[in-house]
Amino acid sequence: MALNVVIMAAGKGTRMKSALPKVLHRLAGRSLVQHVLDAASPLKALRTVVITGHGADAVEGALGASGAVFARQMPQLGTGHAVQQAVPALDKTADTTVVLNGDVPLIRTSTAASLAAACGGVHLALLTIELADPTGYGRIVRGPAGQVLGIVEHKDASDAQRDIREIYTGILAAPTQALVRWVAALKNDNVQKEYYLTDIVAMAVAEGVKVVAAQPASDTEVLGVNSPVQLADLERRYQHERAEALMEAGVRLADPARLDVRGELLCGADVEIDVNCVFEGCVTLADGVRIGANCVIRNAQIAAGAVIHPFTHIDGEAAGVKVGPGALVGPFARLRPGADLGAEVHIGNFVEVKNSTLAAGAKANHLAYLGDADVGERVNYGAGSITANYDGANKHRTLIGADAHIGSNCVLVAPVTIGSGATIGGGSTIAKDAPANQLTLARARQVSLPGWTRPKKSPPKG
Ligand code: UD1
Ligand code: MG
């Protein structure tokens, strides 16, 4: 079946009380409208049209790479008027057009696909649900045989119609050619003086086009975001679903209510995640990985058996971070882009690693910085030591051979090479290469002055 997808995103979102257009507010790290685009993407629409209005420049800028085309709606005269603006951009050869809402982010691909299938290019298919409190929504009016006759907006509804609990979710699929004809014929003779897309239902009925109603798998799919409270509610529902899916795959979460996944989290067997962890971008946790409480991890691959202790921040940005098998990281460690830790590497508290490789068994356990360094196997990198990798204009690398021992509080001024098996005395500033297997010191010699006495306090004058 060939499809168009129309996403309505022109509304203001007054109740968000924000300068940011409503559909650009984020849920699980992605904008609301991006969620809708991502859900629609597997439908492989010939055309995806996003209707923009309020904050159009920002919305179009944010979605520039999505492949969607934009139709501007200024001013906003209702949902029917919105679809009118999309008509010129529709692919008229696509027999079915699916209308989605930019502020209803958790619609599932499967639901949109079944709605499109229910339309099949011939019927008008509405996504509806029953609500205990339908206040504010368009009601589904059915005839004696249960056939759909129309949608009446809350403000236009009679008292009897307001008792109807089946509501229109704002999502439909229509035969493209008929949709084009119907929206062209809309009038705004209603309480709100708007062009209601929902009026096409009565037009379809009048033409003898069958109107079918389908329901989503879960109510969460059709909840809209109008306020920060609703946004937070949807975020929790979404995170709950993610947590359930992880646990069903065998991941042990200390508390599913205290996990946030804002991207892709791939887990092997026997992964354990303690409370208050945030995963962003693409994170892979291999078999047996344990993540301590309060870690924030973005764009990283953690190999089997590695342990990330509490309060560790890992941000791979674009370059990524790799943590090798059996490595121990944290507590309070920071791994930045290009940190590549080999097997059994230990990174302890207040250690920062950026754009550096550490070979198997290397250790930096306390208060240290490794930037632009290549560290050999089993190196011991002392507390308080840093690589001075930046000369104010350029970055340079530090090479540390296998089995070297860097004492505490050393400054390795790059570019510099420490030979394998070398020992660097604590407190040294090393600006020249240090040979293998020797002790290198670069600090003032310690002196003690015999006969020296402390100054005494002078008696007060006067
Ligand atoms: C609409 C439906 C109502 C349904 C409800 C579900 C109509 C007439 N009514 O009502 O039956 O129960 O959604 O939430 O369609 N938008 C534009 N341009 C406009 C107006 C709206 O792009 O001129 C966009 C909004 O940004 C939003 C969507 O369309 O994403 C729905 O608009 P909204 O004002 O929320 O419609 P409702 O009055 O709630
Ligand atoms: Mg609404």
Structure keywords:
about 450 residues, Spore Coat Polysaccharide Biosynthesis Protein SpsA, Chain A, 22-stranded parallel β-sheet, seven-stranded mixed β-sheet, about 30% strand, binds magnesium ion
What is the terminal-to-terminal distance?
Answer: 106 Å
**β-sheet strand percentage:** 25-35%
Give the class from helix and strand content and strand pairing. alpha/beta
Radius of gyration: 31 Å
Q: What oligomeric assembly is this protein in?
A: single chain
- Whole-number total of structural domains: 2
Tell me roughly what share of residues is in helical segments. Answer: 10-25%
CATH topology of the largest domain: Spore Coat Polysaccharide Biosynthesis Protein SpsA, Chain A
Task: Record the SSE blueprint.
Layout: E1 3-9, E2 26-27, E3 30-31, H1 32-40, E4 47-52, H2 56-62, E5 69-72, H3 79-86, E6 96-101, H4 109-119, E7 124-130, E8 139-142, E9 148-152, H5 159-162, E10 166-175, H6 176-184, H7 200-207, E11 211-214, H8 228-248, E12 252-253, E13 259-267, E14 272-273, E15 277-285, E16 290-291, E17 296-302, E18 307-308, E19 313-315, E20 321-323, E21 328-329, E22 334-335, E23 340-341, E24 346-354, E25 357-358, E26 363-371, E27 373-375, E28 380-381, E29 386-388, E30 398-400, E31 405-406, E32 411-413, E33 416-418, E34 423-424, E35 429-430, E36 439-440
Parallel strand pairs: 1-4, 1-6, 4-5, 7-11, 12-14, 13-15, 14-16, 15-17, 16-18, 17-19, 17-20, 18-21, 19-22, 20-23, 21-24, 22-24, 23-25, 24-26, 25-27, 26-28, 27-30, 28-31, 29-32, 30-33, 31-34, 32-35, 34-36
Antiparallel strand pairs: 2-3, 6-10, 7-10, 8-9
